[in-house]
Amino acid sequence: MVEQLKITRAKAREIIDCRGTPTVQVDMWVDGMLRGRADVPCGRSTGAYEAYELRDGDSRYNGLGVRKAVRNVNEIIAGEIVGIKVTEQRKIDELLISLDGTKQKTKLGANAILGVSLAAVKAASASLGIPIYQYINTNACILPVPMMNLINGGKLASNDLDFQEFIIMPVGAESFSQALQITVEINTIVGKLLLEKYGKMALNVGDEGGYVPPMTKIREPFEVLTQAVAEVGWEDKIVYALDVAATHLYDKKTGMYIIEGEQLTTDDMIGLYKDLMSTYSIASIEDPLQEDDFEGFARLTKELDIQIVGDDLFVTHTERLNKGIEMGAANALLWKYNQVGTFSEALDAAWLAFRSGYGVVVSERSGETEDSMIADCVVGLNAGQIKTGAPVRSERTSKYNQLLRIEDELGSSARYAGRKFRQPF
Ligand code: PGA
Ligand code: ZN
Questions:
Q1: How many domains does the structure of the chain reveal?
Q2: What are the pLDDT digits (tens) for 366-380?
Q3: The domain spanning residue 33 has which CATH number?
């Protein structure tokens, strides 16, 4: 039989993510063969402008079931996409967008739509017999700097640290595999130091695998991280980063941020970052201000002169990113495909970022599964940076292990982004 690359079937089911929260998994058949399976990730520290995640709201799973989204795939979407050529990603995504017809994908649910969109990418690459990263981009060759949040706070941890993620970036490594080795060795020393300083409760981990020690002051994680890095002897290989997730520290009524119990203005926040930067070599800050403050972001980006990443600010939407680019708000995009709901729209946001001199950080969600698709995406985009948690727990290590396989496959053509993480080519 001549391969026609036609979608012949799509089927969704309800599975659970790493927090035990239901999510959507979609299988896709091409020319009668099962070729793609994709899981939809899910956030907790979410932005207000993200695409809509459809949940059942009934008695099952405390209302978090996704049977409605599953039904929307099986009873509405599947019949419409059968017969389309699986490599026509944009056509598939445009059909999904028009079947839904709403701005934030509230009718069918962005979780239903994204599952189908990602399954198509995977089914297409498998049908062609090529790796996903190569299907995305035939010139894919850049292995990313892993931005590892070794200490967690905010909404992703059960402690009183205000900032969400305290991150190390092994920019001085020679390869991705060496970068991973370095971070694992540092993480082990961080655990040892936490045990000595805070007791064994400090070894519990948060949603993204980072430690959640009983700290209350934002300088405490830096003290431990810098000490661990010094102990391993890799000060010259490591820089630091933060995801403040400031939307969740902002009080809309007063217009102030609450940090360590104090009320801070936007100027105070900028001052605080400058102060931290004068002590620690911080190379990147994500969501340093709340999601509606484009002006504040523009001012801060100019004044701090490091990588400033927009997560809740841009939510992987081209309109919001365009506004940011026009105003000079941030200089990098956090790339999460479930914030927008189709692969093509997420790609558009990444290309717009690159064209405008913005960096792109491909990112996990705090609710992940063993699906390692974002590892292929970060190489496929030649993005140079990935945020996928601490190097523990399988929903995080599945991404790191896939990157090791890709590095192995690419052989001598693999290049590690290193210090050029924001503009790796
Ligand atoms: P989320 O957190 O996946 O819960 O949104 C990650 C982040 O804020 O970057
Ligand atoms: Zn974030």
A1: 2
A2: 999 999 999 999 999
A3: 3.30.390.10
